[in-house]
Description:
Elements: H1 3-6, E1 9-12, H2 15-27, E2 36-39, H3 40-51, E3 56-57, H4 60-78, E4 80-81, E5 86-91, E6 96-99, H5 122-133, H6 137-147, H7 165-180, E7 183-184, H8 186-196, E8 202-209, H9 214-221, E9 226-232, E10 247-253, H10 259-276, E11 295-298, E12 320-323, H11 327-340, E13 345-352, H12 357-369, E14 378-380, E15 384-386, H13 396-403, H14 412-423, H15 430-440, H16 442-453, H17 456-467, H18 474-496, H19 501-510, E16 512-520, E17 534-537, H20 539-544, E18 550-555, H21 571-578, H22 587-601, E19 602-609, H23 624-631, E20 658-660, H24 665-670, E21 702-703, E22 709-710, E23 714-715, H25 717-725, H26 727-735, H27 747-769, H28 779-796, H29 812-834, E24 840-847, E25 854-856, E26 859-861, E27 864-870, E28 875-882, H30 903-914, E29 918-926, E30 932-938, H31 952-955, E31 956-957, H32 962-981, H33 992-996
Parallel strand pairs: 1-2, 1-8, 3-7, 8-9, 10-19, 10-20, 12-17, 12-18, 13-17, 18-19, 23-26, 28-29, 30-31
Antiparallel strand pairs: 4-5, 5-6, 11-16, 13-16, 14-15, 21-22, 24-27, 25-26, 27-28, 29-30
Helix pairs in contact: 3-8, 4-5, 4-7, 4-18, 5-7, 5-21, 6-7, 8-9, 10-11, 12-13, 12-16, 13-14, 15-16, 16-17, 17-18, 18-19, 25-26, 25-30, 27-28, 28-29, 30-32
The structure holds iron/sulfur cluster.
Iron/sulfur cluster binds at residues 726, 728-729, 987, 989, 994-995, 998, 1000, 1003, 1005-1006.
Amino acid sequence: MDTSIAYDVVLLPDTDRAVAYRKRAADSGCSLMGVTVAGFGAWVRDLWELYGDGRTFVSRLEREALLRAACERAADGDCVDLESDKRAQLDGASGRCELAEGCIAEGACALVGNGETEALGLDRVAAACVAAGVGLPAFDAAVRDAQQGVLAGAGALEGVTRAEVPVLRMIGGYLDRLAQLGLVEPGQALALLPELLPQRPLHVLLEDAAPLTPGQEAFFSACPWMGVEVRAASGSQGPVRAPEGVRVRFAFPSGQYAWPALLADIVRDALGAAAGRGAAPAAAAGPAAGDDGASSCEDASGSADGYRDGRLAWSQAAVVVVAAKNPAVLFGRVAPALVRQGHVAALRGRRRFADTAFGRAICSLRRFLDEGQACGVSHIEGYGDIAPTDVERWDRADLADWALSPFSGMTKKAAFKLDADMRADRTARRSDLRARLRGDNPMFAAMERLALQLDARAAAELEAAVRRMTNRSEAWRAEQIAALRALQRAADAAKLAGLGADTAFDQAKRLKVNVSRIVAPRGCDGAALGAPDVLVTDQNTAASLGSGSCKVLVAADLTSAAYPAADPEDASRVLLEHLGVERADSALARMRRAFFALEHAATDQLILERCLNDSSADPTYPCVVLEEFVDCYRDDPTATEDIDNPYSLPERLQDGMLLRGEDALCANDALSDAPAPEAARIEPPLTGAVSPEARSLVVLPRVLQGGQVLDEPCLSPSQIESYLECPYKWFAQRRLRLDDLDEGFGPLEMGDFAHNALHSFYKHMSEDLGEAKVTPQLLAQARELMADVLARHKALQPHLRQSENRLIPTSQVEHRELAELEHKLMDYLDFEAELLPTFAPKYLEYDVACGGAVDYAGHKLLGTADRIDVDGEGRCAIIDYKGSISGSYALGVREEGRLGKVQALIYAQVVRRTLGLEPVGALYVCYGRRKMISGAYDGRVIENAHLPNMRHKDCMCADRPFSDVLDETEEAVAAALERMLAGDIRPRPETPEACKWCPVSSCSERRG
Ligand code: SF4
């Protein structure tokens, strides 16, 4: 390293590499006195500050925000194709632009350049063009011509399509605005600097250089007084064999569950071997502490645009360096186990803003607060155009996510209570919740101001609050403050462009925050260590550490999905090509250079890892550089037989392969094959039966009216019917109560509403009209009465308790469903006028046990019959209202060897005993869309014509007394109750229909 003698300036591709260069120089004793060592961008910025015209560099966020503002102005009318006079079709929300004829990148899909398959908006297409093209004569001339109204294909716009001209015009407007704001594009500065710089000899070395961009080329050509030497980074042509003495091994975990455990094995082996050869020994193991099970220090720097600031001394040399696609996630999984084993582990990586605790919390809160959410109109078959109501425009889960975050200032208990309260109340209004939280919770108030108004004072309050969270590790706090500042930068950029919080959040979500931390066993000051045992980082950082910087280098995630080699053909690239601005570099070349650097970083072992299966259990494929590297060791790279195996490796490279399956679940999770100490032995729970000890609790004691507690088993007909339908379903629904937390708007609530309305209707029939039964002559009055009843019941619903299954519609669809139910009940009156004309309703919502419990099937029973109609002969028919009816309600199902529905039959038997009436019918009357009747009746007493819309042959009992049916039902129920009380709760569905709405999702007996 002779830089102190030969060069005035050494330029590296980025700041990371510049720092590593300085460190290597210091380690090798080479003086850099008087030598500027910097990333190219930072050097140009310094030159501009010294010799520029006083304008400051625009940041990436400011560029994107200003272009988005330009894009929105274009949406208002500027973006017009002058030839066709057609306006660009701009979607303001996404900033997407299409001309009426063809999209801006004709034939090209606009994709983000980093491999993410996300469609670019016009602003981001323009931003990419500006970053790469501004300052280049061809680009600047095209922008000028576009602004002056030159048509596509003429002047500097030769080769440019008509659809691209408005984009260039918009960029021109952006550059004018930039000048007004006293800002300058780095490309403009690069073009202006040759005129401004003092013309004195300067020796410049571009070390480890990527191919120069057209802007850099032009700059150095315009500065002939600079002696420029370019030392291209090695590896652009493809990988080479690993250096002599470095052992190459391959690691193939079968999936993501196995990978952390395999990595832990690798680290243990490597550290053991390294310690044996005198490398940094692992710190003494001790009891773990802290939120990572260790003491920790960190650097989560505030820069989200790159590794511009914040570096720790330990970052340069670890025994094992792991280069992973997502180092923060991997570190979270392996570090605690490594620390428990006495190792010091460090992380340098980046986390998406939205993945930080602060990012998640503020994004959730913003979704909750955002009034514009889900505001479109959708067309629903049968309902027409439906616009969401206010209740539908927000999701309770968003507020719950915020409440459960550390940024709510709420205890877990309070957060869960808020969640439960919201979910149990369909009437909860966003505005009321906001007002309540704002009053009670200063943290909410600050976050609300930040989320909606980007209030700087709120950001300061939150930063102070984070600093006060001393129960969290310093690493965590630093990460959250970095995320907060990232949002502030996005907010500042949006404000500069005159845009609102939407833009700031859109930009913030695309940012990443630098996170770094070191964790060490208790008693060991990780920060004071010269180097950690293990450094988990990304590929670029690992590549910048330099040759021979670690003993073992693990290059992880080498799949084609993680590292795609193709450059995306996005709209910006197409536009630049039309202007003759060629790409200087490629994704493949970058990957090759990084891989070459990784190959040379290790002194002992190079371990190349690829998970054999992805998270969907689909096979993965090696990335291009891995294939190229393997080819270096093959005699004939065009052959296929030698690599026709799951590892795609020739035999000679399979030596020392590291494999791990996903079957060892516990060992993989614990990151250790050592048998876990047995803390407790828990017998697998009994399924399908209640244990003898718990059998007495199968039916809980009942409190009767008057407060008397009934200890002996007491059941309702609906419980019995549910048990007969399927014992396990009964257990899940009635005893485990696997009910939803959310207040519903379904069959239960609709059924209760209809029952209450019908009860009220008949009560008023006899009280107001002096009639017990609807007849054809009374239909007009009955309809009037029903309309009044329905109106009152609807108005009553919000005043009921949630436990009363109130029916609260919150959306247009639900309002229409409620209206439909009202129509059904109104139409039901016509049906009712024909039903059982010789009977009249006498008992409504009749408590068959009269406040106590009656005997039935050898046990106690209580319940309420919907209606009992009685004739002049002391005969009765039990009526049970239903919203819908299936085949199981008919008596005829007994011919199939099953009992079918029994509720009405049970009531009939009880009524026979308690009221002394003679039951002649146990009927299920459907008030739903299709009015019909099912159940059982005495065909010798009731005429078929008096039971309209019934399959009489399935329901009629004419060959024996009706009482026999009731006795036979009681016997069968008695046998079932014996099984129930003996703890038999095996899943045994009576029909596949039972499984249809069953809440037991993992039932092996599920049918249908
Ligand atoms: S899924 Fe079917 S068999 Fe299983 S518990 Fe539910 S109703 Fe019974």
